[in-house]
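FW: tagging you since you asked about this chain on Friday. Here's the raw sequence from the shared folder, copied in full. Didn't touch anything.
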Amino acid sequence: MEIIIPLPVIMELDGLTAPEGQLGMAAKQATHCIGEHAKTHGLSLKVQTIRGNYLTNLGVRRENIDFGSDSADMDKSMDDFILRTAIAHKEQ
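HL: got it, structure written out here
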């Protein structure tokens, strides 16, 4: 079995770590768990960038996302990039 986690998911989790409380702590635990498993289970757990590259660790936690200046691109959200990453993996 192979688990693919889009890098924008990590970016979203990183954004949730700032608040104190249960949500921030859960986000920290999730990213820590993903990072540890990516190192030890690199063949079955992969972090994929928007451009289709796979990371073996979370040393890179952000990538530039161009929401564009075109009106068609203005309505895009981080969820759109997460879905696009998943679709790109499926098409490989």
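FW: Residues 22-40 form the longest helix (19 residues).
HL: agreed, and Helices lie at 7-16, 22-40, 71-74, 78-91.
FW: great, closing this out.
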